[in-house]
Structure formats: structure tokens, C-alpha cells
Amino acid sequence: MPVNEPEPSRGRPTVVRMRDVAAAVGVSVKTVSNVVNATGQVNEATVRAVRAAVEELGYRPNPLARGLNSRATDTVTLALPGLGYGYCAPLAAAVFDLAEAEGVSVVMEPTGGDRERELEVLRNRGGLSDGVLLMPTAITARDLGDPPSPGPAVLLGSRRVAGPFDSVVSRDTAAAEAAVRLLLDRGASRVALLGGERKEGGDSAAALRTEGYRRALAAAGRGSDPWPIVETARSSRRDGQVAIAQLLGGDTPFDAVLALEEPLAHGALHALRRAGRDVPGQVRVVAFGNDEDAEYSSPSLTTVRADVHTMARRALDLLTARVREGARPRSQVEVPLTITERESTFS
Amino acid sequence: MRGRPSEAGADSAARGSATLRDVAAVAGVSMSTVSNVARGRGNVREETRARVQDAIDELGYRPNLAARRLRSGRSQVLGLALPSVTVPYFREFADSVLREAQGHGMSVRITQTHGDVRRERGVCDDPYLRHVDGILLVPVALGPADMRALTVTKPLIVATASFAAGRVDSFDTDRFEAARTVVAHLVSGGRRRIAAVAPGGALPAESDGRYLGYVAGLRDAGLPVSRRRVVSTDTVTFAAGADAVRTLIGRAPETDAVFALGDALALGALRGLRDAGRTVPGDVAVVGFGNVAQAGYCAPTLTTVDPGREEMAHRAVSLLAERAQARTTGAVLPEPGPHTVGFRLVERESSGVASE
After folding, report:
1. Predicted ipTM?
2. What InterPro entries does its record include (chain B) (predicted)?
3. Distance of alpha carbon A44 from alpha carbon A148, whole angstroms
């Protein structure tokens, strides 16, 4: 730059602080803090006014602050039905490890899939944690319809619930469709769906996966010769064993099984072995699952596994962002599942 | 005389999240008066109490439970420190603990120690178990000296390990007897060259009662104890079990039975033996420890010891809840000590008849 050029103006923009927002709205700094951090009880009209002022003044929380809320607990609540459901255990493990790597501890609130408990977790977060990661298995969009400045929360899992929260969801329907296509590619012609949902239009993980199975069935031109959908009361190994034993004892032919939860598949393998059916020679088996059990079973089990590490990572990032900057656009992140082929579909 | 609900109160009521302040405003009293009425404490005139209660009901006020927990010390949080939630035995144990805790209205702060002895030793000061009223520890790396040196600053219960220290409650099955029973079972099935796969990393095998029981069982049968037939693993995983079997076949090919001290190891061993062309139980019998759900469904199904895991979870959580409660009420409870849970040998295909 030529020596005699005047220096460019070094005027720094005035930093907007919380007290500026408070003054603009005519409330206390504490109230602004409550809105920005999504804590405490603030009436709806005030929340709107504060958020409008935040946008208008261009207030941005200091990213270097560890937490603007002086009551920051560095804790997140992880609300899952339990550890024995679907991919909950590996998901929880991923959340613990990722959270702890950042000095954040995790409180588990097992909901048991109970609607009241899920709502209570979303409502009752004052004091114990900075935010909630919830797997919504029972609450509906209607429950979330009238949000009273909810605390920071991110929904995660298979089930999509419309509401004022960020969410990280697994792409179960597409995964089920891909699994059926794999079975067909491996020579199957009649795929039994184990743990499916016969009634259409549901939104549970089982319903979403059943939908994928139906799409694959239709695409394969089997709409008029429907394959067996076997419902089970629960997803235990015993349920799988009993269901497949019954199917074998009846006159419904099948040469492949897509199990919607891994324990069902282990039960199915056991029943097939007892009935002298060779896997994969006579019956091919695929299961939704993440467990190591699948790698070490005999035969080892082809699985459709959820990318729980990515789900945990994205959910925690969204939650952190939500805790830091209360007002931001909502995000929905979709995470695919991947198929790992093993002996049960390929010899 | 009732005040009209303020706008704030009305909004709060509509949201179902009225504050102490709202109730005080409606009832025309101070916040501390509301607090006393809500908690059934303090000297409050009957007329005032009724007025406050009306306001509480009208506004649907529910005291902030968490704040109350922290203030009164009657927090309902249990800390669970265990190696991992993905190893089947620990996952099933954790699931039982969560269900039991839920039954007591407690939430659970879980941390995975990954078998790190420093984390197990320092569990009472663990930064990830802040603000808990009691800790349930499932240790895999603590040796006898560590156990004696453990700092105990809050109610601590140890599960699946035996503590002679006496400053903590511990729940365990009689590991020594259980292992001895396993060996006796294998011997009665005709096995003579019985190997052991023992987890424990740096710890000598002798620090595990099960290993001592295995040795005693061999001696009972007049059989030699061969160190060639003892394989140590660092972790309790399927892969470790499969690797251990590979090692075993390499250095002790005459082995006709494997006692794996952990079902994940046993399940891995089943796979390892299959891959090495050995039939189970024909060539080699296998017995595990833990009775995880998969044991009844693998191929062949796995003989194992059920160490009373569900009973342990039930009793440990109940006792922890009691001890945590006693801290605030000052109730006197029996001194901490070891508690025994019964075991049973679950016989399945893997320790069945040998061929020839």
C-alpha cells in the first residue's frame, strides 16, 4: 500500500450488550438473560419483545463465554425409553463419550416410553441441566403445539414429531426399503417382516420401517401377493423365536426374514436352527441393529445399523447452539442407516 | 379477599407454569409465605394458608422440583459408574438399574469408566457424577489395595465385586463357589483339560474369586492347574474372547473345555472355536459367566452362571435410595458391609456331551 494513503477507518462497531437489549425493551437484564438462555419463566409477550430487540439491535452472545447463564450446570439430560430399546444403548454410549469429552455430564431420565414422563422431562428442566435430548416415543405434535418458551431441547430417534424443537432423525423407511432390496438381490422371493406393523399410517419406528418394506414389495411387483408381516408384542429374543416357530409351523412360505429389531433376529435364528433350516441357504436374515452380538453370532448377522455417533454429535451440537443462542432457526437433521452384510445373507 | 390474577399470572396459568411470585401476587402475601405453605411448614395463620392454597390451586403452581432438590439436599439422583453400556452384561445391568431407579423416582447420572482404575478409585469425586446422592459402582479394575484406599465421601455401593473394607456396601454373588461349581460340572461331563479366560488386564488372575474357585475346582477333582491353559484379556469383549481362544489353541491345543469369566468372552470364544474348526460341545465345552439374554439364543446355546444380576440391581438401588434418604433424615441404618446374592448354574448346549 502506498505510504501516503490515509489509514482505513478503525471505527469498531459498538458491541451490543444484554443491558442494551434490556433497556430497549424496558425489562431487567435478568429477564433478557432468561429469554436468551431459555431458562426461567417469562411471559410470552415479553419473550417476543426481547427476541425482536435482539434481532433489531444485532445482539450476539459472546461465544467465548462458557455459558451466559450463571447457573450453567454443564449437564444435559438424556431421556430415552431405556437401554434395551432399539439403538438406545449405543446411542447413549455415544452421547456419554461425546459430552464428557467436552466436560459435560449426562443425566439419564428413563421414560419407559411413557407420554407423561416425556412431557415432564421437556417441562421440568429447571436447575438440573442445561438442556434435554429426548427420544419421543409417545408425545405427539399436539402435545407440543403450545410451547411456553420451552427450554433448550433436541428430539432424536426414528420418530418425527412436529414441534418447536430441533431434531435429529434416522432415515428408517429408506433403510428398510434398501434391506428388502438386498434380500431380493440375494435370491429371496418372499420376505417375512418380523416385528412389523400391519396397520398403515403409524409413525413409530416399526411403522416407518414397515412402510419401507411395503415400498420395496410394491417396487418388486408383489403388491398382489403380499408377504407375511408378523407382529410381536415386544422386541425380545423370545418374541422372535416364538413368532418364527409359529410361521414355520403354518403354511405361509418364506425364504427371508427382515427383523425390525436385533433381538428378534437372534430369536429367529434360534428357531430356524431348531427347525433345521439353513441360513442363508434356505432362509436369509437381515436385522435392524447395532450390537456386536450380530458380528459374533453363528451365522453372523447382516445388520442395518443407525449411525448413532453422528446422531449424538449433531444432537449435542444443536443443543449447545440452542443453549447459547436461544433465538435461531430450527433444524432437522436426517441421518442415514447403513447395511453391513455378513453370513446371514451371503455364504 | 382475592386479587385478580395479574396478566403474568394468567399467562403462567395458561402455560401451567406459574411461579412463586405469581402465587404471592394473587394471594397478596410474601413469597416466603407461599413457600412455607407449599412445603407445609412455618407459622402461617389458617386464613392465610387457605388463601395461599386457593391461589396455588387456581394458578396450577408446582414448586420447582429441581431447585427444591438442590436446596433441601433431597436430590433424587443416583450416580452409576460402570465400564460401558454396550457390553451386554453391563448394558443389561444398567437397564435394570434405570428401571429400579425410576421406581424410586430417581434419575440416574451415568458415566462409563472404560475400566480405568483411576476413575474407579476416584468415583466419589468424579466430575461427571456431580450432585448425586449416592453412587453405584461396577468396578473391573480395582484391586484389593485400591479397595482399601477408596475415598468414600458419599453413599457408595459396589456391585459385582466383593469388598472386605466395610466402609461401603457391596453386592456380589459367591464367585468362588460359582466357579468351583462350573468346574465340577465340566468334570462330571468328562472334561479334564479345562482352560480359563480371565479378564482383568493388569490385575493378577488371583484377585478374582472366580479364578481361585476355578483352581479349587481343579484341585477338588485331582486335576493339575496349568498356567498354559489360563489366558488373560484386557477387556470383556467378544473380540477378546475370540482372540483368547486363538491363543489357547496355539499354546494348549489339548484343551477340552473353556471357562470364560464373562459371557461376552464366552460368546466370542464360541465363534473363535468355530472358526478354528473345533465343534462345541463335541470337541470343546464352553461355559460363560453372567447369563446375558443372548446366552439362550446363540449357536450352540451357552451354559453360564446367573450371578443374580436383577436381584443385585434391585437390592443395590433400594439400599442406595435408603442411604441417600438417611443422610437428610438422620435415620440410623445398619453399618455398610458385604451382601451376597445367590447364583445358579444354567446348563445349556455348550457344555453338553463330548464326542467320542
Report:
1. 0.77
2. HTH_LacI, LacI/GalR-like_sensor, Lambda_DNA-bd_dom_sf, Peripla_BP_I
3. 7
